[in-house]
Amino acid sequence: MLLEVSTLAAGYLGQTVVQGVNLEVSPGEVVAIIGSNGAGKTTLMRAIAGLLRPMAGRVSLAGRDMTRWPAHRVAGAGVAYVPAERHLFPAMTVKTNLVLGAYPHRPQREALELVFEIFPALKPRLQQRAGTLSGGQQQMVAVGRALVAQPRLLMLDEPSTGLAPKLAKDAFEALGSLKGRGMTLLVAEQQVPLALSVADRGYVLENGRITLEGTPHELDRNPEVRRAYLGVA
Amino acid sequence: MTGGRLPARLGNLVPVARGRAFLPILAAGVLVLVVPQVWFADSEYTTSLAVQALAFAGYAVGFNLIFGTTNQLFLCVGALAGIGAYGTGILSNHASLPIWVGIVAGTIVAAAVGGLMSWVAVRRSLGVIFTGVLTLAFSFAFQDLLFGQQHLTGGSTGQTLTAAAASLADNQIGGYYLFGAVVIGFLIIFRLLQISHFGWAFRALRDDELAAELAGVNVARYRICAAVIGSAMIGLTGGLYAYSEGFISPPTFAFDQVDVTVLVLVAFGGLGTLLGPLIAAVVFAFVDNALVNSGQLRELIYGAIIVVIFLGFRRGVPQTLGAIVRRFIPHDKVGTRWRLPLSVRQRERS
Amino acid sequence: MKAVILDGIILGLGFGLLGVGMTLVYGLGGVLNLAYGEFAVLAAIVVAQAISGGMPTVLAAVLGILAAATAGVLLDLSLMRPVYRQSTGHRVLLGLMLTLGLAFVIEGVLTWRDPLGGLTISIGGKPISILGVPIAVGSVWAALITLAVGVVLLVFFAATTFGRGVRSVIQDELGARLVGISPSLVRTVIFGLSGALAGLVAVTQSMTSPLTVSGGFNLTVYALIVSVVGGLGSVAGAFLAGILLGIVDDVSARYIGSYISDIVLLGAAALTILVRPRGLFGS
Fold this sequence. Notes:
The complex is a heterotrimer of chains A (233), B (350) and C (283).
Chain A: E1 3-12, E2 15-25, E3 30-34, H1 41-49, E4 56-61, E5 64-65, H2 71-76, E6 79-82, H3 94-100, H4 109-118, H5 135-148, E7 153-157, H6 165-180, E8 185-189, H7 192-198, E9 201-206, E10 209-214, H8 216-221, H9 223-228
Parallel strand pairs in A: 3-8, 3-9, 6-7, 7-8
Antiparallel strand pairs in A: 1-2, 1-4, 4-5, 9-10
Helix pairs in contact in A: 3-5, 4-5, 6-7
Chain B: H1 8-11, H2 23-38, H3 44-70, H4 77-94, H5 99-123, H6 128-148, H7 150-153, E1 159-160, H8 162-169, H9 172-195, H10 197-207, H11 209-214, H12 219-245, E2 247-248, H13 255-269, H14 276-291, H15 298-312, H16 317-328, H17 342-349
Antiparallel strand pairs in B: 1-2
Chain C: H1 2-27, H2 36-52, H3 57-77, H4 80-84, H5 88-113, E1 118-119, E2 128-130, E3 133-135, H6 137-159, H7 161-171, H8 173-178, H9 183-205, E4 211-212, H10 216-230, H11 235-255, H12 258-275
Antiparallel strand pairs in C: 1-4, 2-3
Helix pairs in contact in C: 1-6, 1-9, 1-10, 1-11, 2-3, 2-5, 2-9, 2-10, 3-9, 6-7, 6-9, 7-9, 10-11, 10-12, 11-12
């Protein structure tokens, strides 16, 4: 198992937002966490990424306990997290943003080549400041910056945030091609059809707890999921 | 007033029930009145310390109104006080006008200067630090002017207010009551503003400026009003100080003498609180007095006290002590009306 | 006129270096270090003591700079820890008050141990002619050292991995953590660098005019003004602001007169803030 989360609880200011979460990601697998707004997806992702200290439970990467590691150490161990707000370095060029992804090393040539293959639109904009890019382009830089680190696990929180439907679809297509290259992905997303389009497996998060788990096919056929998330009566 | 139609969120912010709003001021007033009778009325030295403490309390209340409620870091308290003081001195010495004319004029000019700086800061949407440095620059420029315009200010030797010498300078306890009355007056104004519609606008402003603006609070107007009123308080205190001392010189209004002290007082007493500045002024008068004999070590000890106080009591000493007391008294007995809305409490803990 | 501007540039380079140490620390976490100038004074006293103890001047200067750097690191590891645990709004005030207290403590210790202490490094020799303007040897050395350090700093922040890491923390701390940068480690290093810069300013300034124990607070204020005018967090901005203010100061001192020049300098600073409310290079 690459990522193993067991009985995890996390929240803010002593109030739990997610609890009792068990979750696994195997190498090469694409796993989706779906749930409505406020279900706790971001809290869960932040707790795994080390941005939020879990209140209970365990997070381990390839068998190594990293429950209480700070975010920069989690990143250094090969988990790249792309938050919904992206958090680029706005006054730096696209190129510097990408190069910083490999911190503290120099970026590998093949890592940069992969980024340009997935996001060819970035290549002509390398010298542009990240803060001047459109939302879709910023999303590409954010994912690109994470890829330059050559992560063992790539985590994305709501990659469709702030993107027009067409661009959101493009973003998930890019994730699909990463999947084709063997990348391990953990994606939190509230647009369930998009999420299930790339996932091998999905978890449904409701009110801070995992209520369902299954393949896209199983989830797609589940009447609860269909009613709550797919808008089918 | 608009009391009935407050949005729910702002409704939470009204700080104090109206009936009891002035009780703390009344208590403070009684103390100011009684303490000298039972303690120091006959000691000239103690009285002058008390006058000093009350003058600084006056500055601190004004600064607290500007910074503590509307978040404008005015690092020119000394300069504004200097405007009041030198306005008084120059008009009485050079134009032979009655002292009170000088005090009034000095207060008005200080209010105008403070209002102007606030207007500029608001118009250019300067942040806290930038407002701080702008006013700091003014502070230093004002000092340079005091030294440079010798024919008016007396330069580094200072000037004696000949007209004041006979009246108040010899009558220390009179000065004490004058400052006591002024500080109590300031506190009443402060509280009146707090319980008026200004009050919740201020609170909303501190809580979340953008939200306040979206809710229709005219942030700019409240800022400038607070700056004008606060600067007038500081200018008036400065003018009265010149009157009561009978002598003024540039160091009395220097940044490191006035602004640093006032910042420490307000931070110590708790930003935006009613009695905090007064309590802090009294406490630091004792600290100062205790350190009088430590000579060269005075500055070191003073610095160490500041560090320890701020490490231990991050939200202001009275607040922290209050929190400790509350821990030992059943919660419901200590008026829940002091509880802040959830969003504020959360921010304070994070 | 040429001479005045050249003098102003030399003065301004010093201002700029002073501003860099202040601006970096602010950019990294919202703390304005009011003890900054005292670090310079601390370095000056160490250098003076070492020289009077018989140490060669260069070695003594290095020792002084190291002492100030150590003071910076210690400040970050002790008093600054609770500050960085605060939310941003409370951080500014707590940082101001704690460093203010520390400034009193350092100045108190120095005036207690060595009330008349100060540092003057005199470098002999005939004035050197630059563009036909004779300039004192000490000023030339001070300007050259400052210029060299300035260039090294600019290259460091633009082109090295750690330098880029520092800038990334200034621009988006959370983003920096996500690419594996530890903001607290960066802050500790930069506090040390900031102390070292204060120490260096003490050394270069004492080549042109004496630096005394009571001069610390003025250095802090100048650093504050320069860093704000340049745009908080910007190294290039601090240098540009320093040079501009240096020229303004020298020109007004020469053509308008003594005390007005300070007012003109402060006025120029205020004006820049008003024209560009985030500073010359502010984002």
